[in-house]
Design a protein that fits this description.
Blueprint lengths: L9 E5 L6 E9 L3 H9 L9 E6 L6 E10 L10 E8 L1 H12 L4 E3 L4 H8 L5 H12 L3 H11 L2 H26 L9 H20 L4 H6 L1 E6 L6 H9 L17 E7 L2 E7 L9 H16 L2 E4 L12 E5 L16 E2 L8 H15 L10 H16 L5 H19 L5 H8 L7
Helix pairs in contact: 4-5, 6-7, 6-13, 7-12, 12-13
């Protein structure tokens, strides 16, 4: 079911996973949370204070479990509504019994995926950029992903948007005064300069944020393609980089016929390594298709590790020329055009290669003090910048309209309107109970 708003029901869900467990937490949110809490324990509770209580069946008073109970009256809660939590023993039987008792109560229903967070958004407890940051935080697998997602979830972009909107609103108000009340004494002589300065400052700050590398590289990993002719040592190096036998290694040319991918974390950064088919003309339809896929993978990679002759390396992009199989007789000397001589068999040059990849990757990723924007956020900011750029500096009417358009885009960026379809897709990423 796609949720387009709050239907008024009190929702509940198991918010911990992996039953059986030491503790399981069941959350409620909605107007009937306090009533449900009292029905299951026979008492009321002090707000925001953990209390021990015996949970009983409302039907026959049979004890179910002794639980730690918390009561959070709204609106100062995570969802903006009344909330309650049961911290019970994490057995499947206890959790199933408690969920069944809640489901039997009128006005209560099981929560949809992401519905707790959606209610927080709809009730103004989070803006859209914070919600997207929380979704990324829940999916974070590396330290870098965690840090940037947390910064977004804690309101990093939301604070920028609020500041930009406020200054644009002030600029618009000053220009409206110039346009409509220029013959009255309330209009100050510097209103026009004030407005233009604010617009230019906001324009420049948005451009600076747009110049930061995108969030997709953080989430998906730096794409590294291993490319070169057959029998260059690509699969052996690939296995060494991903620390497992992911690709078949054989002296027979053309063994790798498709793109083999493996995600790897190095020093808190995510990488996606791709082993590709050897580049040659074979006349074999299957191998030729593999060669075409290899070329496409190399063209879209963030970094290409080239294991062939330096003069045959692809042009453009971030290409690192390697001298592979440096342990073999006659290959001890590194050509001048090669960045490193390596041997995946003996480990020669491997630490230097990892250090080089980390250095290149960090240059492609946002710094810890920078905001990492996703595609939707970057597109909205580009529209806002374009609106301000399209206005003629000397035409105040056009500039006022441009400011309004820029503010409207910022409203959409923070989730104030016109984003319902996107919300359905976003909240579907959350687990039940979040």
């Amino acid at each position: 079911m796609a949720l387009t708003g709050d239907d008024g029901a009190t929702i509940f869900a198991l918010s911990t996973a992996g039953l059986p467990s030491a503790i399981a937490i069941i959350r409620l949110s909605g107007a009937l949370s306090g009533q449900a809490l009292e029905a299951l324990t026979g008492r009321t509770f002090a707000p925001r204070r953990a209390s021990l209580a015996l949970v009983r069946s409302p039907e026959d008073g049979e004890p179910v479990d002794r639980a730690l109970v918390l009561w959070f009256p709204g609106p100062d809660t995570a969802t903006g509504e009344d909330m309650a939590e049961f911290h019970v023993h994490g057995s499947r039987a206890v959790v199933a019994k408690l969920l069944d008792m809640l489901a039997a109560m009128p006005g209560l229903r099981a929560a949809e995926a992401g519905e707790f967070t959606r209610r927080a958004f709809l009730n103004g407890r989070m803006d859209l950029s914070e919600t997207e940051g929380l979704a990324d935080l829940l999916a974070a697998e590396t330290e870098s992903q965690r840090r940037h997602a947390l910064a977004m979830a804690e309101g990093g972009l939301a604070r920028h948007i609020a500041g930009w909107r406020e200054r644009l609103l002030m600029a618009e108000a000053r220009l409206e005064a110039v346009l409509n009340f220029s013959d009255e004494g309330d209009v100050e002589e510097n209103d026009e300069t004030f407005a233009l300065d604010h617009v230019r400052d906001v324009h420049g700050e948005i451009l600076a944020v747009l110049a930061v590398p995108p969030a997709e590289r953080l989430r998906d990993g730096i794409r590294v393609a291993l490319a070169g002719p057959p029998n260059a040592g690509k699969s052996t190096l690939f296995n060494a980089l991903v620390a497992r036998e992911a690709a078949i290694v054989s002296p027979t040319a053309g063994t790798t016929r498709d793109v083999i991918e493996a995600p790897v974390e190095m020093d808190g950064l995510a990488f996606l390594f791709s082993d590709t088919a050897g580049l040659r003309e074979s006349g074999d339809a299957v191998e030729d298709e593999g060669v075409q896929r290899a070329r496409r993978t190399s063209e879209t990679a963030d970094i290409v590790l080239w294991l062939g002759e330096p003069g045959a390396a692809p042009e453009g992009g971030d290409v690192v020329i390697l001298h592979p199989r440096a342990d073999e007789p006659g290959r001890e000397t590194r050509p001048g055009a090669a960045a490193l001589a390596i041997s995946a068999e003996t480990g020669r040059g491997m630490e230097e290669l990892r250090a080089l990849l980390l250095e290149r990757a960090r240059a492609m990723l946002p710094r810890e003090d920078q905001l990492a924007l996703n595609h939707r956020q970057r597109q909205a900011l580009r529209e806002s910048v374009a609106a301000l750029e399209d206005a003629a500096a000397g035409d105040w009417i056009l500039l006022v309209e441009a400011i309004r358009q820029a503010r409207s885009v910022l409203d959409r960026l923070s989730g104030r309107g016109g984003v319902e379809d996107m919300l359905d897709a976003l909240f579907a990423r959350f687990c039940i109970g979040k």
